[in-house]
Amino acid sequence: MKENTNEMILVFDSISVNEGLARVTAASFCTQLNPTLEEVADLKTAVSEAVTNCIIHGYEGKINKIEMKLQYHGNELYVHITDYGIGITDIEKAMEPMYTSKPDHERSGMGFTFMEAFMDEIRVESQPGKGTTVHMKKTIGRKR
C-alpha cells in the first residue's frame, strides 16, 4: 500500500495581492487531507503571516520571488515559505512577541507568534543577505 504523500511548489511575486493567492493555494492543497474548517483557517492565517513577512521585512517592499512548498506525509502537513531577501540577523529576537523591525509601518510584531499559535511546529532558518525560510508543520485531523 502506497503512503499518502503529495507535494507542490508555488513561486510568486512579492506583492500584497499574492498573499491571498498563497492562502487559497495552501487551503486547497490541504483539503486533500479532509481538514476541519478550523484547521484550514489556522493554516491560512499562518501562511498569510509568513508571506506578509517576506513582503514587508524580507524584501522591504521590493518585488522579488517568494517560494511556497507544500507537502504532506500521512496526515502531517508541511509548509515551507522562502524569500531571498535581506535575512534576519537575530532570529530569536525576531520571534519575540510584539517585536517588529518596522514600528513606523504600524506592524504589530505578532507574525511569528500567530504562526506558532496556529501551527504545531515552526522553525526559522535565515542568513543575512541571502533570505529566510519559515518551516511549519500541522497535523490534520488530530482533534477528530
Automatic annotation (TrEMBL):
Coiled coil: none annotated. It is an enzyme of class 2 (transferase). The keyword ATP-binding applies. It catalyses: L-threonyl-[protein] + ATP = O-phospho-L-threonyl-[protein] + ADP + H(+); L-seryl-[protein] + ATP = O-phospho-L-seryl-[protein] + ADP + H(+). GO terms for biological process: asexual sporulation; negative regulation of sporulation resulting in formation of a cellular spore; sporulation resulting in formation of a cellular spore. Residues 38-142 form the Histidine kinase/HSP90-like ATPase domain. InterPro entries: Anti-sigma-factor_SerPK (IPR050267), Anti-sigma_F (IPR010194), HATPase_C_sf (IPR036890), HATPase_dom (IPR003594). One of its GO terms (molecular function) is sigma factor antagonist activity. Keywords: ATP-binding, Kinase, Nucleotide-binding, Serine/threonine-protein kinase, Sporulation, Transferase. The keyword Cell membrane does not apply. Its EC number is 2.7.11.1. SMART domains: HATPase_c (SM00387). Belongs to the anti-sigma-factor family. Binds to sigma F and blocks its ability to form an RNA polymerase holoenzyme (E-sigma F). Phosphorylates SpoIIAA on a serine residue. This phosphorylation may enable SpoIIAA to act as an anti-anti-sigma factor that counteracts SpoIIAB and thus releases sigma F from inhibition. NCBIfam families: spIIAB (TIGR01925). This is Anti-sigma F factor. The gene is spoIIAB.
